[in-house]
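retry 2 of 3: previous attempt timed out while embedding FE2/S2 (inorganic) cluster. Reduced batch size to 1 and resubmitted. Inputs unchanged:
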Amino acid sequence: MARAPKSYQVTITNTGQVIACTAQQTVLEAAVAAGIDYPYTCASGNCGTCVSRLDSGKVTMLARGDASLSPEQVKGGQTLACRARPRGDLTVTWLGRGRK
Ligand code: FES
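retry 2 succeeded.
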């Protein structure tokens, strides 16, 4: 019998919602599945639309295009929701749509 994938709590500060996200899901996939209007375009790590600040927690990043997130942004605690899988409970804030 397959074990249920490990699931973490992801807090989206923009909406104040707390959603479940498994270790096999990206933050973006979990947010969209929960009905959150998270900003994204490509969902494949190339456009940077889903750029988010990782307020707390750690993620595993899937492969992404070099232009979508600079090393400086990574150092500054930013991530791409469409490429980030949780390694524990997380808090994220999306930075798109003119928000900072
Ligand atoms: S949606 Fe394009 S980089 Fe995430």
